[in-house]
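Good morning C.,

I know you're traveling, so I'll keep this short. The sequence:
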Amino acid sequence: MKSDIPRIDCTQSLDPSFAEDYQAAVVHVAWERKQQNRTLLLAWAELLPSEIPEPIDDGEVSERIQDSYLYVRHVVTTAERALRWYRDCASGTVVRPANDGTLPANVPGVGTMMVSSFDEEPPWPNLVCSRSPVLPFLSNWYACPRVHHLIPKNFDLARLWTDRQRIRAEQWLAEQFHFSLADHKTLWGSVHLVAPNPVFRQLDRRLEASADATCEGILLHLQARAGQDVAGMHL
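The tokens, ready to paste straight into the viewer:
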């Protein structure tokens, strides 16, 4: 997989042998419950490069809006489990985090959430490089993150809440995620896979003139992650 990673701003894919690049992951999930019906509101699976230690699980948070309950959980798990969970989502099965903070296996009887059918962007197993203005939950440290999107074909907010309830839900979710779904309405009901660059932390570049000023070139500097080597990469 390593030789495929450095191709910047182009379509890429995740090799099944990605375990050497990603070990831990965090699956961020927000959902709504009325009685026994649970609806996925937004989720993304964040793979962590092997130099990044897994975070501490900060538990589940919830909020009540009349007869509607909102939940947010940041599930710390393995990269392999996160990827399997994401691909289960693509097939229409969104496994709900368990009370102990784990992601149960996708087996008959496991708790799931209601979702719309999805369009995949781009077609799996391809991924594309993305930037934070497109996805507000992307961090600056990712360095050319590769992403994949599951976009709902029909997500009906009016089915969940009145306008007043929706505004309260958006405010509460903004406190948990530090961005507002009111400003990113197309994210409602969507799921995303985020694969930060596992080989280098950042790419610096600058214009540089020759000593005699007769020509110019671009100097590139790649800062490798711990235990990684950027030798042999192609731009």
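Safe travels,
E.
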